[in-house]
Amino acid sequence: xxxxxxxxxxxxxxxxxxxxxxxxxxxxxxxxxxxxxxxxxxxxxxxxxxxxxxxxxxxxxxxxxxxxxxxxxxxxxxxxxxxxxxxxxxxxxxxxxxxxxxxxxxxxxxxxxxxxxxxxxxxxxxxxxxxxxxxxxxxxxxxxxxxxxxxxxxxxxxxxxxxxxxxxxxxxxxxxxxxxxxxxxxxxxxxxxxxxxxxxxxxxxxxxxxxxxxxxxxxxxxxxxxxxxxx
Length: 231
What we know:
Blueprint: H1 2-73, E1 81-82, E2 89-92, H2 106-125, E3 132-140, H3 147-165, H4 176-182, E4 183-187, E5 194-195, E6 201-202, H5 203-206, E7 208-215, H6 217-228
Parallel strand pairs: 3-4
Antiparallel strand pairs: 1-2, 2-7, 3-7, 5-6
C-alpha cells in the first residue's frame, strides 16, 4: 500500500515538473516569434526607406528633365510647347503636313533637322539616357472623319516623322543608333483633343505631333517589389 502511494506521489511530482517545462518551452517559442517579428519590421522599415529614396530619385530625374527641356525650347522660334508635367514636346502638325496629308512638307525637313538633335541632346547627352526607356513619336488628329480614318492618319504621320529621322537623308546619322533602340511610334486618332484658351474644342490645336519620353517604370516597379519582398 505504501509503495502504491509512493508511486502516485512520484507520478504527481513528475507531472508537476512536466507542465512548468512545457510552459517554459511555449514562452521561449513565443519569444522567438516576437524577436523574428521585430527583426522583420526593422528590415521592412529599411526597405521602405530605400523604396522611397528610389522613387524620389526617379521623380527628381523627371523634374530635372522637364526643366532642361523647358530651358532648351522656351522662347524657341520653332513654336514648340513643353508640357510642364510630363515633359511632352507638342507642336502643330501643320508645321509638318498639309491638311489631311501624311507626306512631310519641304519645310518639315528643316524643322526636324533643327528640333530632333536639340531634343535628343537633352534626353541622351545630359546623364538621362540610363533612365529613358522609350522615346515616343505620337500623332494626333482632329474630329473630321471617323475614328479609324483618323487613327490611320495619325499613325502614318507619326511614322513619316520616324521614317525620316532614321533615313539616310537625315543629316545626323550618328544619333540614329540610339534612337532605334528606344523609338516607339503611336497614332491616337482624335481621342485626345485639345481646347483653346476659352476652353472650347480646337480642331487646329488637336492636329499635332508630340515627342514623349517614358522612364523605366517597369524596372522601377521591379525594384519596388524587390524592396517590399514581393514576388
